[in-house]
Amino acid sequence: MDIFSPVHIIILLIIALLVFGPKRLPEIGSGLGKSIREFKQSMNGMAQEPPKPTQTVVQEYPAQVVTPEDPESK
User: Fold this and answer.
1) How far apart are alpha carbons 7 and 43 in whole angstroms?
2) In terms of DSSP H, where are the helices of 1-74?
């Protein structure tokens, strides 16, 4: 059974018309269309941009000299 069969879409449109009314339905549709369009544009823009290089900070510590203890010095 297909979720988006024509019968289901018509039922959803009738429910939306009853809930939002005939005056608000076109506003909601245009807002939804604009948001989908902006989402697609941003996704295309992200795909076309090269990845930004990341900067890695490396800390260098001075070398520590470890000398063995002399048993005679105690």
Assistant:
1) 32
2) 6-48
What global pTM score does this model have? 0.46
Closest by CA position to 25, among listed 14, 40, 34:
14
Structure tokens at 71: 């048993």
Q: Is 40 exposed, middle or buried (0-12, 13-18, 19+ CB in 10 A)?
A: exposed
List the chain domain ranges.
1-47
Shortest CA distance to 22 belongs to which of 10, 31, 13?
Answer: 13
Q: What is the CATH number of domain 1-47?
A: 1.20.5
Distances, alpha carbon 33 to alpha carbons 2, 24, 59, 69, in Å:
24, 14, 50, 77
Give CA–CA dist 74/56, Å, rounded: 47
Over residues 29-66, the pLDDT tens digits come to 899 999 999 999 888 877 776 667 777 777 777 777 77
